[in-house]
Amino acid sequence: MRIDKWLWAARFFKTRSLANQAIEGGHVKLNGQAVKPARELRIGDSLDIVAGGAHWTVTVRGLNEQRRPAVEAQQLYEETPESSARRALEKEERQLAPVPGSDLRGRPTKKARRQMRGFSEGY
């Protein structure tokens, strides 16, 4: 089975084209080596996946040509304990130190726009 199709079926990416872009961008490694999207995947292979800011290390446990519900998709792979611990730590760090400006919603007010313009123009 093609690696890009498996990543889509295992629900790491929403579309196959996003999976292709991630593979070509070097965000997916098969057994520690960069691959092409058409590379054949076998049960027992190890994948390093960087998707959406999360780093996964998984072992392929099953192949499925179709995209199935999330419960069934999770049976296609087994995440390593180190990977799950790393992702939990990253999640905790994001909660403790959110991205600056993440609490802002919608358009800035007139006063806020004036402050931003004053800051950028230096007065």
Please describe the topology of this protein.
Layout: H1 3-9, H2 16-24, E1 28-30, E2 33-34, E3 46-51, E4 54-60, H3 70-73, E5 77-79, H4 81-96, H5 110-121
Helix pairs in contact: 1-2
Pfam families: S4
Protein name: RNA-binding S4 domain-containing protein
InterPro entries: HSP15, S4_RNA-bd, S4_RNA-bd_sf
Which sequence of SSEs, written as H and E, runs from N to C? Answer: HHEEEEHEHH
Could you tell me the strand content as a percent range?
15-25%
Portion of residues in helices? 25-40%
What does the radius of gyration come to? Answer: 20 Å
> How many strands in all?
5
Q: Which structural class do the helices and strands define?
A: alpha+beta
The strands making up the biggest β-sheet line up spatially as: 2-1-3-4-5
Taking the sheet with the most strands, its summary is: 5 strands, antiparallel
Biased composition (Basic residues): 107-116
Domain RNA-binding S4: 1-67
Protein name: RNA-binding S4 domain-containing protein
Biased composition (Basic and acidic residues): 84-95
Can I get a quick summary?
This protein has 123 residues and is an alpha+beta fold.
Can you describe what's shown?
The protein is α+β, with helices and mostly antiparallel strands and 123 residues long. It contains five helices and five strands, in the order H-H-E-E-E-E-H-E-H-H. It has helices at residues 3-9, 16-24, 70-73, 81-96, 110-121, and strands at 28-30, 33-34, 46-51, 54-60, 77-79. A five-stranded antiparallel sheet has the order 2-1-3-4-5. Helix 1 (3-9) crosses helix 2. The model has no long low-confidence stretch (mean pLDDT 90). Residues 107-116 have a biased composition (Basic residues). Belongs to the HSP15 family. Residues 75-123 are annotated as: Disordered. It comes from Aromatoleum evansii.
